[in-house]
Amino acid sequence: MLNTWRKIAAAGTSGLLLLAILVSAGAGYVKAGEAAAATQGSEQDIFRIVALGDSITAGYEPGMTDVNVKPYGYAERLLEQGYYHGRSTLGNYGILGLTSTGLLNYTGAIKDGAVITAEGIQAGLPDPRIEQFAALTPQIRTELAQADLITVTIGGNDVSSLFLQYKQLTDEDFQAQLEQRLSAYNTNVKTALENIRVVNPQATILLADQYQPAPKFAVKEAYPKLMGAAERLTAMADSIAASFDQTGAPVRVAHIAKQFVGLEGSLTHIISLDFHPTQLGYEKIARVFAELQWGEYRTPSVAATAPGSAPISIVVKGTELNTPNKPVIKNGQNFLALRDVLNAVGASGKWDSKTASATIVYGDRTVVITIGSKYIKVNGEDQAIDTPAFLQKVGKEEKTYLPLAALATGLGFDVKYSSQLKTAFINP
């Protein structure tokens, strides 16, 4: 995938903004070095994702130096897909401008658990977080060792300059340089995967091929040549994956390149002279990864996102709630009807009209929520909540609405909210 990072490298203070944006990227995104710590000591079954690679992994788009813009790339979408299947975490270590040589160096340091310098990874990297990523290799090794799924996007920066120079090269020179770069890609990626396998012998590894970003109308007669080069890289990725794939330790290729063919103008920012994916492009990439991993790519139902319907979608243990008692947002908090909560989580409960309180039992936890109270009781202990439970009239009945986050925390559930999907994921 072709990368134009000179603009970022020359942007001065914009690098600091990008650092803040990428490291605090979105609901459920685990900051660098925190994926292992976030679940340390937990007995819950957690699906752990580690994403390695270049700016595509990082989720970069033009304008990301704007402090109000947060990355929402394929890795963040893949994390959301994980929520549909249970508790999930993401450690995203996509490095801007990384080549396969840089990936080789980085995974080598991660394998050894040794701190490496930014220059030791790759000279001149424009990523403002590179010093942080270089210093975190021992923690990243721990995350990598615990990962269930490891994704890799790499190779675009290996061939980008060649693609940009195609007009100045004869066909013979183009093919000769392509062979050299593909040979280096082959060697580097194989060794990088060997490094990863030393750390984690069993995780699923999904290696992406590389799309060709230039639409046919822009390159005209050169389009077949550029597409042929992309197809060669795909074949190389297929060969690499096949050499590593084995029962219990799958290595597969996420074939994203074919998703972009004929749609380059809408799936990339090529019109603004940047070859990174648009949001639609990142969704296409995420869909390929998710379908390889889970056999599906899920989105909220049309009913949940249509105008005039529920403000959010609620997914409990992988099942989206479908109820006439629509979720309510009050004082920035999400509320659900008591009966819907009980049905969704498989908990038992009762309503005490004398005390206007609901008692919910799930496993070894008992939660008591009282209408109007700013406290809930969890196994007899008071816990403060921001907004009390309330009664809401639905048709001719009054329904008890409970604060979702407080209830889920009281019952020991994990709650993640995706502002992009307008969906709350609840997993025991």
UniProtKB/TrEMBL annotation:
Domain Copper amine oxidase-like N-terminal stretches: 315-426
InterPro entries linked: Cu_amine_oxidase-like_N, Ester_Hydrolysis_Enzymes, GDSL, Mao_N_sf, SGNH_hydro_sf
Entries under Pfam families matching the protein: Cu_amine_oxidN1, Lipase_GDSL
Gene3D superfamilies (alphabetical): Copper amine oxidase-like, N-terminal domain (3.30.457.10), SGNH hydrolase (3.40.50.1110)
PANTHER family (alphabetical): SGNH HYDROLASE-TYPE ESTERASE DOMAIN-CONTAINING PROTEIN, THIOESTERASE 1/PROTEASE 1/LYSOPHOSPHOLIPASE L1
Protein name: Copper amine oxidase
Organism: Paenibacillus borealis
